[in-house]
Amino acid sequence: MARRRFFVDEIRGDRAVLRGPGARHLCQVLRVQPGQLYEVSDAARVCLGRVVTAAPSEVVFAIEQELPAGPTLPDVTVLAAIFKFDRYEWMLEKATELGAACLLPVMAARTEAGLARAATKRVERWRRLVHEAAQQSRRLRPPEVLDPLPLDRALASEWGQPRWILDESLAGFHEGELGAAPAGGERPVLLTGPEGGFTDAERTLAQRHGFTPVSVSPLILRAETAVLAALAVVLYRHTALEPN
Q1: pTM above the 0.90 mark?
Q2: Given 35, 70, 184, 216, which is the most exposed site by the fewest CB atoms within 10 A?
């Protein structure tokens, strides 16, 4: 069974310190004892750490060895229009497991007004959720969760390339360049819609900002399914070319 991984602020010399919810979880849930081994990551490297002292406020590890950091993931940003929170949070968790580097909740025309108003209050919860999902999936670092933005402001922000908008109005499967071999230095951006999809005006605006319409299925997918299907395609197009 793989060892549990925890994110720490810093690995300095032969010591690492875990504080906050992670320390409380180790002590109160996992009942950690001195001498036990865990993986710790400071977002730059991963090490094997042996517990020296353990308290709910702070767990101190002695670094035993550095471990492989894991595969290089594509630097994918997901601009995901907000939909019902239970499914949205499930999507955030699974997007983390699929390697999304940055997640931006977006308020689109068809986002329910109540959800849009409540989204800002949910951000810290979402950050904790993806933090836990990143530890579980043994990532080097958790994705960044940005503060929610209206669609027009999200589109006007500085993003990488290439840029894709998932468009259910396309007939059939039109992955286009989504499934093409990646160029060096890519920072892909996926724009995904709410329940009911984007309006025609929103699609036009996205294309003006350089987003190419793509589809990942000949069927109409639920909003959360579309995000994960697109991420899987982007992940595959990168990792399929990685040397064995």
Answers
A1: no
A2: 184
Radius of gyration of the chain (CA): 20
- Each residue's pLDDT tens digit, 109-162: 999 999 999 999 999 999 999 999 999 999 999 999 999 999 999 999 999 999
Q: Report whether 136 contacts 184 (CB < 8 A).
A: no
Q: Cα separations (Å) of 190 from 30, 107, 153, 162?
A: 37, 15, 15, 9
**Nearest partner of 132 among 226, 10, 29, judged by Cα:** 29
Domain of 161, CATH number, reads 3.40.1280.10
CATH of the domain at 35: 2.40.240.20
Look at residue 244 and tell me if it is in a domain. Answer: no
The tokens describing 162, both together, are 């290439």
Q: The tokens of 234 are what?
A: 């982007």
Q: Find the domain containing 151 and state its range.
A: 77-239
